[in-house]
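PROTEIN DESIGN WORKSHEET
SECTION A - STRUCTURE
LENGTH: 302
TOKENS:
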């Protein structure tokens, strides 16, 4: 009996423990699920933090890259920005003879003196190309060398005529492979673009004309420069593109007083010869290197 009652009690207790065991098991399961859920949330949070950190790093890199790129762009723009050249105040006013002699004698010093600077250069138009004009020296010893002028406006090339004496302002670009000096961004500073009034020329005596220039160039320019003059003189030299005349009895006066004549039509050059007396009509250019005065766009008067 005792065993029967004891067995019964065990059965009853066991029966009562089943719900508790089941509840305990469910609790364990829920706890496990919660722990798993918490682990997943933590992992998600960690992953998100890592992503945010990577984004921040990427953002910083992009900002740094953008700043560097902006600095590079500014440097490139500044470096390639066209230089503001002052054409109102040229660094030098020279003739083709002067600038070519400087480069011929000391290229390094001449480059320092002229290169990348605005210069006003005067010379005689030798050839007219599609993109530039050559100015030639008066000195025959410099016949190999030219100043090549590239106009800022190519339409200005139409204004030139071979034999014209012009003053060009532009940026000296040093010498090229052939020893010529290139001048870029050029504008015409002075040119006798109008056709001289050959019929209404002012008649002068060659000796008076030369004497005025020898005594006072400024006053002589006021009287003659830019005006059409006519005089008769003796030819002393004929070059490929111009002739030279002198006043009467120049040897007696011991004058260095030659006058250079540049013809409007090169066919007129064929009409003159050394020792021959000719009547010249042309526009006075004023004083020129090596010569007392210069006459441009001249013709031989019959």
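SECTION B - SEQUENCE
RESIDUE ASSIGNMENT:
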């Amino acid at each position: 009996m005792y065993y029967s009652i004891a067995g019964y009690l065990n059965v009853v207790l066991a029966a009562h423990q089943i719900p508790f065991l089941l509840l305990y098991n469910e609790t364990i399961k829920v706890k496990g699920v919660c722990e798993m859920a918490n682990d997943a949330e933590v992992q998600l949070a960690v992953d998100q933090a890592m992503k945010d950190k990577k984004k921040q790093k990427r953002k910083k890199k992009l900002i740094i890259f953008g700043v560097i790129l902006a600095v590079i762009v500014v440097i490139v723009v500044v470096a390639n920005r066209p230089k503001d050249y002052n054409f109102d105040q040229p660094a030098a006013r020279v003739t083709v003879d002067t600038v070519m002699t400087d480069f011929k004698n000391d290229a390094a010093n001449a480059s320092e003196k002229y290169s990348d600077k605005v210069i006003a250069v005067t010379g005689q138009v030798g050839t007219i190309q599609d993109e530039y004009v050559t100015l030639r020296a008066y000195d025959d010893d410099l016949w190999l060398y030219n100043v090549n002028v590239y106009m800022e406006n190519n339409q200005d090339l139409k204004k030139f005529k071979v034999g014209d004496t012009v003053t060009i302002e532009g940026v000296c670009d040093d010498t090229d492979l052939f020893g010529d000096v290139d001048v870029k961004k050029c504008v015409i500073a002075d040119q006798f673009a109008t056709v001289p009034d050959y019929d209404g020329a002012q008649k002068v005596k060659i000796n008076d004309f030369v004497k005025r220039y020898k005594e006072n160039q400024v006053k002589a320019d006021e009287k003659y420069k830019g005006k059409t003059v006519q005089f008769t003189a003796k030819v002393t030299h004929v070059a490929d593109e111009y002739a030279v005349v002198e006043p009467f009895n120049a040897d007696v006066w011991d004058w260095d007083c030659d006058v250079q004549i540049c013809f409007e039509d090169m066919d007129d050059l064929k009409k003159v010869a050394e020792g021959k007396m000719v009547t010249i009509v042309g526009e006075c250019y004023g004083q020129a290197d090596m010569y007392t005065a210069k006459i441009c766009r001249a013709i031989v008067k019959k």
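SECTION C - NOTES
The mean pLDDT is 77.
The radius of gyration is 47 Å.
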